[in-house]
Amino acid sequence: MAPRETYRHGNLRHALIVAGVELAREGGPDAVVLREATRRVGVAPNAAYRHFADRRALLSAVSQAGLAELARTMERELAKAPSPVRARLRALTRGYLAFAQAEPGLFRAAFATTGMADTDTDEATGPDGRTAYRLLSDALDDLTASGALPPEHRPYAEYFVWSTIHGMAVLLTDGPLRGLLPVEAEEAERRVADAIERGLCPTSE
Amino acid sequence: MAPRETYRHGNLRHALIVAGVELAREGGPDAVVLREATRRVGVAPNAAYRHFADRRALLSAVSQAGLAELARTMERELAKAPSPVRARLRALTRGYLAFAQAEPGLFRAAFATTGMADTDTDEATGPDGRTAYRLLSDALDDLTASGALPPEHRPYAEYFVWSTIHGMAVLLTDGPLRGLLPVEAEEAERRVADAIERGLCPTSE
DNA sequence: ACACCTATGTGGACGGTGTCCACATTTTTC
DNA sequence: GAAAAATGTGGACACCGTCCACATAGGTGT
């Protein structure tokens, strides 16, 4: 932490977000501490207030970054197994759960600030500009278009899918299911993914 | 807050938990503040350390109380609509979501302290001694016994069901789906409950 | 080129919090 | 009835979020 020679920092806002993300990685939303972030960036605590109204504002920015990272992971998984329409939803599920388990702290921070507005911002998108929610929603549209998902089951389907995936992620990382052996977790994920498909389209298989 | 006349409090541990639950109701897990709890009970801050090792220990006790309250709500809903085996799972779902929406702060606090051990304690049970998890699990056993749920789908079924219900609860209260109109929320709950049933038993209806 | 204005960073302070230590008081135990 | 254990008090420390006044840098208009 050599003291910078310019009085100005250059891009303090961004630097603070990066530091905040690192803190969230290490200890979840509660670990996103204003003073510690400024300390890591090498700046006085109050400097943060020129860029964020509040600790909550910083946390919100960190949350966006986390959501973007989540979307990125999902997109990456999607790119790996694109061919059958059916497999896309599974890939997204895999990405969601993989991210939550690989980065539990950041995942928790991503959903720490509430409100749909936060989740649907441009800041919260992956490389191709879609949020996690939109990725899921689009996959369901594809399923409908391809005839795998009957149109009468389409409404509210993303609530079901998202709830199941998100709930699984929360229970696995944060919640009472953490500490499951990796083997068990994997099997559980498979079973849950199966159940999601069945829940969507009763006539499948 | 009349100063008590006995030097000893009587049952400080319990009083602190009650105060903690109240704090959780008002502002979630972060609002469970040691000093404030002692203040409300009318006792010096350090007195808490005779009964709890830590702030986290108090929060854990509050969490147990919250889980017990959740189980109680589920049991109550179960008692209201007992007849057909199928309806029991729906009643439990309704109870879970109703509690989460009625007491979002306490609900969050209930799942704030992690680890399966915490969730399965005796402290975390409803009136008839079953935890939320066990209530769900038992309902699934009943479904299997009555033939509605094929035995080959029984394993890991509680993970699916719990994930979906819990995810829905989190997204509705904490998460991006909060702010949904009550009507929408109700419709979403119905759809999700339908999907859960379909996800469990492919041959239903 | 100079003076101003605004954006940005600094320093110091305040109240609040978790937690530690030493001490006081009550209850229990022998 | 004295010793020991349990319980509550008081004071202190470090840390945090946040407010205020001040210092400095980068631009802007004349």
TrEMBL record, chains A, B:
<dbReference type="InterPro" id="IPR009057">
    <property type="entry name" value="Homeodomain-like_sf"/>
</dbReference>
<protein>
    <submittedName>
        <fullName>TetR/AcrR family transcriptional regulator</fullName>
    </submittedName>
</protein>
<dbReference type="InterPro" id="IPR001647">
    <property type="entry name" value="HTH_TetR"/>
</dbReference>
<dbReference type="Pfam" id="PF00440">
    <property type="entry name" value="TetR_N"/>
</dbReference>
<keyword id="KW-0804">Transcription</keyword>
<dbReference type="Pfam" id="PF13305">
    <property type="entry name" value="TetR_C_33"/>
</dbReference>
<feature type="DNA-binding region" description="H-T-H motif">
    <location>
        <begin position="33"/>
        <end position="52"/>
    </location>
</feature>
<dbReference type="InterPro" id="IPR025996">
    <property type="entry name" value="MT1864/Rv1816-like_C"/>
</dbReference>
<keyword id="KW-0805">Transcription regulation</keyword>
<keyword id="KW-0238">DNA-binding</keyword>
<dbReference type="InterPro" id="IPR050109">
    <property type="entry name" value="HTH-type_TetR-like_transc_reg"/>
</dbReference>
<dbReference type="InterPro" id="IPR036271">
    <property type="entry name" value="Tet_transcr_reg_TetR-rel_C_sf"/>
</dbReference>
<feature type="domain" description="HTH tetR-type">
    <location>
        <begin position="10"/>
        <end position="70"/>
    </location>
</feature>
